[in-house]
Design brief:
With 837 residues, the protein is an alpha+beta fold. The protein has 25 helices and 26 strands. Strands 6-5-4-3-7-10-11-12-25-24 form a ten-stranded mixed beta sheet, with helices on both faces. Strands 17-18-16-22-23 form a five-stranded antiparallel beta sheet, with no helix packed on it. Strand 3, helix 12 and strand 4 form a beta-alpha-beta unit.
């Protein structure tokens, strides 16, 4: 019954069923550790009975420490949840079923009783507390029963505690030592779904009718705490001191911060809850994480990042996270055997395997695999693509965690003005209009509480392609500072530990300062040495982030509106833009999406416009919008007044890669002759290096940090320190909406703000629903206007159509009018077949 859903367990006793699942989790965890001790040859032999996919999958669990720790942590957390589930169940029925547990434990042989030690300790603490605190309220017979069961519980706990400190490898050997390789239960791979996670236990709330009355951590007196079994005076004082400094507890989970054994803390936690204490802080940061899609693993990573910092007495960090739950689809062929109860695979087995949405109050914790923050609410399945869900989370955070400043982070996939937060379970996304409505609802909520027309201090889209003029204009009435990226963000997204560490250190920071820090922390984390670079990477090629003052976005939008009307009067200019702009201007994601850098596009217009329009656009680029960024310099001129040669190297006189010098001097240095003289009598050489070179010893690519050189006839050595391969600009004209612009070496054409300019014939009519299009329609009129132009030479046109392809693919094909382009795109979908009609 362990491998079937709960609906098929029938009337099996809840206690026995839950105990069996705890034991099952322990076996799987021990088996995983046991396999990890195998030599390669032994592991190959044991895995040989599996299909190749199964072999590879299990090897990835054993050899990749991150995967191993994640699954190991999953089993541990799953057991902890079941322990709490059993404890609450027993407390709610006044421990009537405790004899069943004691009877169950009698039949256990080493080591299968070990996983129940934490549960037995919780039960011991609960019974002892009940007898100590409420003995006068218990009937003599009930008191006698509890005393007897406590004695038996102590004996069982003592027996299994003696062997609970052995290694998981030892437990695994003991459990599986008699099995042959062909009989070993490879729990972690079923050949199709890879359903390696155990079922998530349904939460059982604590009943107020229980004889066991829990203590409120925010109201308990020193005398109350002294009645908790095993809690000494020193720890009691820590609780009282922490409560005073922090202004209260958010949940029993915070006891782990006070320094006691985790097992003892978890046992005590069953006796506590925390009533809500509303204390106004400097900052409340809300992170809306839609992990109900393929970004689910990254969602858990980012919560663990936040836990490296945690909330403080002046900072609240709140998270709403929704996870993916695969559901079995319709069985198309009944004649083929298939388990009708097997779920579709999730994207990760990490943490305790919960499904649906939760709200957390983030605590400091250094465990990279598990979430240990305060679980505030279990919400069940939530449509994270609904504005109602977003508004509800914002209002919950504002109402319960008041602050001087508020920051909202919207986390997920983004597609620019078309939307963000794609929820796979509900097949829905947040449109820009949805986000605006949710923010407006919250602004009304603020108004009812005396803060009329209040705006969010910061809105950060931790998502792709969200730094655009259209988005800024849509949200300007509800947000002070918008932080976003023009480009595709790497999966890790924001470096939340670095971001919140700033507020921990500087809680009184104003929104502009915090926004600038977010930008700097982001680009630094994807630069050489940055902690968010994937293993083997040297530099992210989509590293850009911007902070925008939305109070100044109106002026920019009006200028664009006026210039657009002027461009429409120059049809040749628009024709050139459709023909050449995508070759000259940086665009983000796919060309068909039409996300072009605003500065680059209007600079393209400026260079080809009539004199009057040139001046108008030039004023826009230098006065209202931006001025050109500092470029990355990789050529350095060295000169003197007499001829000779330069001997040089890099990063401490390294050489290698001879392509950068005509020859090498005495097998040690690069040698470059001086050229000249110039008109002023100088001889010179220009040294040009890429950002990375191969280290001649390690043969690995490393960042070039310095150039070392001397002249061949001199002994004095010189050093040129090179700037890092990223920039964070913070100086802009006063009219500019830009506050900070961060970019990597490969984003030299990224100027912070994108604008929609679709390829010829690809205009999306939904664009007309945006506030920018409705209020200032000049740009919308321009991009929906297609000039007629002659092809440079005759082309054969083809009509193509497929009823069975997706709508997006048919749209792609409909934009193709020449055979070569058609064949190229078609082959990406179904190579070798021709559907020309």
């Amino acid at each position: 019954g362990l491998f079937l859903p709960s609906s098929l367990w029938g009337e099996e006793d809840f206690i026995i069923k839950s105990m069996n699942l705890i034991q099952e989790s322990f076996k799987r965890q021990a088996g995983l550790h046991y396999l990890k001790t195998f030599s390669n040859s032994k592991l190959n032999k044991w895995l040989s009975s599996l299909e190749k996919g199964g072999q590879d999958f299990i090897r990835s669990l054993l050899e990749k420490e991150r995967n191993f720790q994640a699954l190991d942590g999953h089993y541990l957390l799953n057991r902890k949840l079941r322990e709490r589930q059993i404890f609450n169940y027993l407390a709610n029925e006044n421990f009537h079923s405790l004899p069943k547990i004691l009877e169950y434990m009698k039949g256990q042989k080493y080591p299968l009783g070990v996983p129940f030690v934490p549960l037995l300790l919780k039960l011991k603490v609960g019974i002892s507390y009940l007898l100590k605190k409420d003995q006068n309220k218990l009937s003599p017979s009930l008191k006698e029963d509890f005393q007897k069961e406590k004695g038996e519980l102590n004996k069982v706990l003592e027996k299994w505690s003696l062997v609970s400190g052995h290694s998981m490898e030892k437990y695994g050997r003991e459990i599986f030592k008699k099995l042959k390789s062909k009989d070993f239960p490879f729990f972690w791979y079923d050949g199709h779904n890879q359903s390696i996670a155990l079922p998530y236990p349904k939460w059982i709330p604590f009943s107020s009718k229980s004889l066991l009355k829990r203590l409120d951590l925010n109201k308990a007196t020193e005398e109350d705490l002294s009645k908790v079994p095993g809690m000494e005076g020193e720890f009691i004082q820590k609780i009282l001191k922490y409560r005073k400094i922090q202004g209260g507890f958010e949940g029993p989970e915070e006891l782990q911060l006070l320094g006691e054994s985790i097992r003892q803390i978890e046992a005590w936690s069953c006796l506590f809850y925390a009533s809500h204490v509303s204390k106004k802080k400097e900052w409340t940061c809300l992170v809306y994480i839609n992990g109900d899609n393929d970004l689910e693993p990254a969602a858990l990573d980012d919560i663990n990042e936040m836990e490296r910092v945690g909330s403080t007495s002046k900072l609240n960090i709140l998270v709403q996270v929704d996870r993916f739950e695969g559901k079995q689809g319709k069985i198309l062929e009944e004649k083929y055997l298939r388990n009708p109860y097997a779920p579709l695979p999730g994207y990760t087995f990490r943490d305790d395997g919960f499904h649906g949405a939760r709200r957390y109050y983030i605590l400091k914790d250094q465990d990279p695999s598990r979430i240990r923050s305060v679980l505030k609410e279990e919400l069940g399945e939530v449509d994270m693509g609904s504005p109602k869900s977003l508004a509800a989370f914002m209002k919950w955070g504002i109402q319960n965690y008041p602050a001087r400043h508020y920051a909202l982070f919207i986390w997920d996939h983004g597609t620019g003005w078309k939307g963000v937060s794609y929820d796979e379970s509900n097949q829905r996304k947040l449109s820009l209009w949805d986000i605006r409505n949710a923010l407006k609802e919250v602004q009304v909520f603020w108004g009812k509480n005396g803060e009329r027309k209040r705006k969010w201090d910061i809105l950060d889209f931790d998502a792709c392609l969200m730094a655009s003029l259209e988005i800024g204009y849509e949200l300007k009435d509800f947000v002070r500072v918008l932080v976003a990226s023009q480009d595709l963000e790497p999966d890790p997204g924001n470096p939340y530990d670095a971001i919140f560490q700033f507020l921990k250190k500087y809680p009184e920071a104003e929104p502009v300062s915090f926004a600038k820090h977010i930008v700097a922390a982001f680009v630094r984390s994807y630069s050489p040495g940055g902690k968010q670079l994937e293993e083997g990477e040297f530099l992210s090629d989509t590293n850009t982030k911007v902070a925008l003052d939305l109070s100044k976005i109106e002026g920019l939008a009006k200028e664009i509106h006026q210039i657009s009307k002027m461009i429409l009067k120059e049809p040749k200019l628009l024709e050139r833009a459709y023909l050449k702009a995508f070759d000259k201007v940086l665009f983000f994601s796919d060309k068909e999406d039409g996300n072009l850098d605003l500065y680059g596009l209007f600079d393209f217009f400026r260079k080809r416009a009539s004199p009057g329009l040139q001046k108008k656009i030039g004023d826009l680029l230098t006065r209202i919008c931006f001025f050109p960024k500092a470029s990355f310099v990789h050529g350095y001129t060295i000169k003197r007044t007499k001829p000779g040669k330069i001997l040089w190297g890099w990063n401490g006189w390294k050489t290698g890669e001879n392509r950068f010098s005509p020859f090498v001097h005495k097998s040690r240095y690069f040698e470059t002759p001086l050229t000249g003289p110039d008109g002023k009598g100088f001889y010179w050489a220009v040294l040009r290096l890429p950002p990375f070179l191969e280290d001649p010893k390690s043969e690995e690519k490393v960042l070039v940090k310095e150039i070392n050189y001397r002249f061949d006839d001199e002994e004095e050595e010189h050093k040129i320190l090179l700037p890092p391969p990223f920039r964070v600009e913070m100086e802009f004209p006063p009219e500019s909406p830009l506050l900070a612009l961060g970019y990597g070496i490969y984003q030299h054409g990224s100027y912070g703000i994108s604008i929609y300019f679709p390829p010829y014939g690809a205009y999306d009519g939904q664009y007309e629903s945006l506030a920018f299009s409705r209020n200032l329609p000049g740009w919308q009129s321009l991009i929906s206007h297609y000039p007629l132009y002659k092809l440079p030479k005759k082309k054969t046109f083809y009509l193509v159509g497929f009823q069975h392809w997706s709508a997006s693919f048919r749209r792609t094909l409909s934009q193709i009018v020449v055979k070569e382009a058609y064949q190229k795109v078609k082959n990406e979908y179904e190579p070798g077949k021709d559907y020309i009609q």
